[in-house]
TrEMBL record:
Residues 238-249 have a biased composition (Polar residues). Residues 203-233, 621-643 have a biased composition (Low complexity). Residues 19-38 have a biased composition (Basic and acidic residues). Residues 83-163 form the Cryptic loci regulator 2 N-terminal domain. One of its GO terms (cellular component) is SHREC complex. This is Cryptic loci regulator 2 N-terminal domain-containing protein.
């Protein structure tokens, strides 16, 4: 049985009796509601108090304890299971039971529903009387949070639905539904389902205007030119437990582009491996674009400009990469050890090295190895341990509970993650199911330190991702036209990737992989995020040998890309595949801007351009063209991958010599002798 840490709530506003119009009544269901006598039809409709030792009472307290820990607990305590030792004084939990005459013969379904026709729980005790009852733990939690955190005990500070109804919160009422009369004009184009988060328009003005206030309205205004600063969002009070959006649309061209299946795989600001011709290097993407074909017979090309990582002040020129297959995610391979023995110390990081002194010693022959190679490895590891929040959507004043900020994206280690897209999670080794977490909100909670702790000052901030868990379920299917549909709100990339994989599996295995909602409205700390989710039908053709991927297609079993990917923080553990815990990284080191995370491994003033527009000749001055040796054989692969929905015939370099697989043994998995990549010299650098 899991161990839970108990919370004791010292304050309560609960009452056993209330007085209205000089009449005192019990703060509980009425005597008629408590009467269990069946009616003429043998139906019993009554309320009963739930004892503390019953499962439903325990469930309520466990859920409230978990939510309370997420709100007021320290980041390092977020993993603990918590439970309320008891409900606040004078708060009592009742359940409404409606049982038909044959109800006693029914078998119990579960602790929530039992075997009755109706069995709902309500929490009584609110000082406004029995008609003000809470219907769920989530309903009661804002009130509980106010009890715990408000030093003034002022009910006006409570943001729960009973103390602060929607009418007082200024929430807009839904417009009345108008009946569509005959011969009337057809309705306008349907709006996207669910609320749509709108990022403030990017403007060159230095002042915010009312038009830039974030709102849950359709994004109909064209986005302005990327690259300018967003206006400051307006701070507005709202409930301490706001509803999470179910779907998202950000008014940014790069967000809309990245949500598509056949978009560019990599994003500006991300750390990637890049093909230098006979070896691979580490770099940061500073620009990307798609070159449209001049004729229908030609294919569009995907282009990137990367800045190689190096030690200061020696910075190579940016490199133009015209083949997407010449790039790899940072997490696709495990980095080798540093060539200079002194730099192999686990406590030595890129930002702690005196590079001026080290370069001088190296140039004088005091060290053997490749300083540029080692610098890029240490730089990538340093960046892997950082995170940066991006695109502020809204700021909410939660009163005594602090402030909540909602963000549209974040850099997590080497990768950029958007709201509305799937990510990989760290899961127990026994859990082999293909499960992903679709991010619906990136929440930063800033709360003041409790006043009863004299040693603490200021405020603390922690980041939580909210979203839904989806699992890939394999169901019998005899024909591609009979593949069951995916959930309606599933991201397009996930749906299309599942369709490609199903088209391969149905003819051979008579089964199809379909995404199913496993858990809704789940919260995850940054430490549980393993990295971006990549479409298997897009990335595997790049990672695998051609024969390997073709064999998977023939067998009708295209593997999950996540099996072949490392996780964020794995590189900080020397041998993560042999038991070292990469989760020690926690949330990582927060950096205000991406340039702060990159530090001195790139030239000062390096610009990361989010524009998708093709650069002109002036923009490409000083940019070197990527090495073509070793890349020409992948040109066909890129063209085939463009037709992903119909199938794949990929080609690419071998992964085994680079990847940190669980089957590898010993520290020599990545290195063979003094040369990188083995005796042939063909490896990382």
């Amino acid at each position: 049985m899991a161990r839970y840490h108990a919370f004791y709530v010292a304050r309560s506003d609960g009452t056993l009796e209330t007085t209205h119009a000089r009449k005192t009544e019990r703060n509980e269901p009425t005597p008629d509601q408590l009467d269990r006598t069946p009616d003429a039809n043998g139906v019993r409709d009554y309320y009963r108090e739930i004892p503390e030792d019953e499962q439903k009472h325990i469930d309520w307290r466990r859920k409230l304890g978990g939510m309370l820990m997420r709100e007021i607990g320290k980041p390092e305590e977020q993993h603990k299971g918590c439970i309320l030792a008891a409900l606040p004084e004078n708060y009592r939990l009742y359940e409404h039971i409606k049982q038909s005459q044959d109800g006693d013969k029914k078998s119990a379904k579960n602790h929530a529903g039992g075997g009755h026709d109706r069995q709902d729980a309500y929490l009584y005790g609110h000082p406004q009387g029995r008609k003000k009852r809470f219907r769920s733990p989530a309903d009661y939690f804002p009130h509980l949070l106010w009890l715990v955190t408000d030093a003034d005990a002022d009910p006006n500070n409570c943001t729960c639905k009973l103390c602060c109804p929607e009418e007082l919160q200024g929430e807009p009422k839904p417009p009345p539904v108008k009946e569509l009369k005959e011969n009337s004009a057809p309705p306008a184009s349907p709006k996207p389902k669910g609320p749509i988060v709108v990022i403030p328009r990017r403007s060159s003005s230095t002042h915010a205007s009312n038009s830039t206030t974030p709102a849950a309205t359709p994004a109909t205004t064209p986005a302005t030119t990327p690259g300018t600063q967003p206006a400051e969002p307006v701070v507005r009070p709202t409930s301490a437990n706001p509803q999470l959006p179910t779907s998202h649309s950000l008014s940014l061209p790069d967000w809309q582009f990245d949500m598509q299946y056949d978009s560019l795989l990599f994003r500006p600001g991300e750390i990637v491996w890049y093909d230098r011709g006979v070896a691979w290097g580490l770099s940061v993407i500073i620009r990307r674009w798609v070159t449209r074909p001049a004729s229908i017979s030609q294919q569009s090309s995907k282009n990137y400009i990367v800045q190689p990582l190096n030690y200061p002040p020696q910075y190579p020129s940016p490199v133009l990469m015209t083949l997407e297959s010449s790039l790899r995610p940072w997490l696709a391979w495990s980095p080798p050890e540093c060539t200079i023995e002194t730099l192999r110390r686990p406590d030595l990081t890129f930002d702690r090295i005196d590079w001026d002194h080290l370069v001088a010693v190296f140039m004088n022959g005091g060290m053997n190895g490749d300083l540029g190679v080692d610098a890029s490895i240490l730089a990538a590891k340093m960046i892997d341990g950082t995170y940066t929040l991006q695109q502020l959507l809204s700021t909410t004043n939660l009163g005594p509970a602090g402030t909540e900020r909602r963000w549209g994206a974040l850099f997590l280690g080497a990768e950029k993650i958007w709201v509305g897209e799937p990510v990989r999670l760290r899961q127990p080794q026994a859990n082999r199911a293909e499960t992903v977490f679709v991010v619906s909100a990136i929440s930063e909670r800033i709360q003041p330190q409790p006043s009863y702790n004299p040693a603490s000052t200021g405020s603390s901030s922690f980041v939580t991702l909210f979203g839904d868990l989806y699992s890939l379920t394999h169901v019998p299917c005899s024909h591609p036209s009979a593949i069951p549909p995916n959930p309606r709100n599933l991201p397009i990339r996930m749906a299309k990737d599942a369709a490609v994989r199903a088209n391969a599996s149905v003819p051979v295995r008579r089964e199809a992989g379909v995404w199913r909602l496993a858990s809704a409205r789940v919260s995850k700390p940054l430490s549980e995020i393993k990295g971006r989710w990549y479409e298997s039908s897009r990335l595997l053709p790049i990672l695998h040998e051609k024969e390997v991927y073709e064999d998977q297609i023939k067998q009708g079993s295209v593997q999950d890309t996540g099996v072949w990917m490392n996780g964020r923080g794995d590189s900080l553990s020397r041998r993560p595949h042999q038991g070292d815990s990469p989760q020690n990284i926690g949330s990582g080191v927060r950096q205000a801007e991406r340039k702060d995370a990159l530090g001195r491994c790139v030239p000062p003033g390096l610009a990361i351009n989010d524009s998708l527009n093709e650069p002109n000749e002036a923009d490409l001055q000083g940019v070197e063209r990527g090495q073509q040796q070793g890349q020409q054989d992948r040109q066909v692969q890129d063209q085939q991958q463009h037709q992903a929905v119909e199938g794949f015939d990929p080609a690419g370099p071998g992964l085994e010599e680079f990847m940190n697989l669980e089957s590898m043994e010993g520290d020599t998995a990545m290195l063979d002798g003094p040369e990188f990549g083995g005796q042939t010299g063909a490896g990382f650098y």
